Amino acid sequence: MKNLIIILSLFFLSGCVDPFLLSYGGSHLIHKMAYWEHIDTKEKAPLKTENDCFDKVTNNNPFSRDNYGQCLYEQGYRFRTSNLLYCFWYMKEECKDYNKFR
Length: 102
Known about the structure:
Low-confidence stretches: none
Largest sheet: 2 strands, antiparallel
Order of helices and strands: HHHEHHEHH
Structural class: mainly alpha
């Protein structure tokens, strides 16, 4: 019994259990793992800032992650994730596009 508890604890601590837990919570939990953090204040980007960049990028143009990331980057925000599995398991393409804005 002690070994089982140790093994389960290691799975929880390593994040290996996340895919099973998140499958019940939906994709909105996965998308909340990524955020934009200000380089000086370490605060997450306000929704208004993200929306302003989105509006600027999509003004008569199709959405581009590169332009969106560049807009936030120029305002002092950096792309961050709260879970290591986000880039390796869930959203590989998004991370590939935003890695230059870390």
